[in-house]
User: Which sequence fits this backbone?
């Protein structure tokens, strides 16, 4: 990965190196069996952005592409999400001590009809991420489990 402007941004991007590679993804949708999918993380544009591409062979689950950038304002990240349905979203992202979190609580390119949150914890060896997506109807509603999502490093 090439150097980027500012040591804080470089440090933030370096923390994401643990994601780089190919992963099998396993979604646990309540009441449904889903085949495993695939997710690949790779650096682009001289290491200034991390791109994630995911494919799941389930009609209800869209293929996705996300671009992750360091956010110098928050010491976190911004994930720009795009999917095969034409959905575009922006998530605030944190990645600290093996805990990966994505949160969408404000309108962006689309109205905010519900809040979303993903929280994933890395295993000690860094080869598994166990997590879950949650939703909430509005800012005062509690988070509700949507589905579990597990990543297993394949390369």
Assistant:
């Amino acid at each position: 990965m090439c150097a980027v402007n500012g040591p804080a941004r470089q440090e933030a991007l370096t923390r994401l190196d643990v994601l780089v590679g190919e992963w099998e993804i396993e979604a646990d949708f309540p009441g449904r069996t889903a085949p495993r999918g695939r997710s690949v993380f790779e650096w682009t544009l001289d290491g200034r952005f991390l791109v994630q591409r995911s494919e799941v062979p389930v009609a209800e689950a869209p293929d996705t592409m996300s671009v992750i950038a360091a956010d110098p304002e928050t010491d976190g990240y911004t994930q720009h999400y795009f999917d095969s349905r034409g959905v575009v979203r922006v998530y605030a992202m944190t990645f600290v001590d093996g805990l990966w979190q994505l949160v969408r609580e404000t309108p962006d390119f689309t109205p905010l009809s519900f809040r979303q949150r993903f929280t994933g914890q890395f295993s000690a060896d860094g080869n598994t991420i166990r997590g879950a997506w949650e939703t909430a109807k509005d800012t005062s509603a509690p988070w509700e489990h949507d589905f579990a999502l597990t990543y297993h490093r394949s390369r």
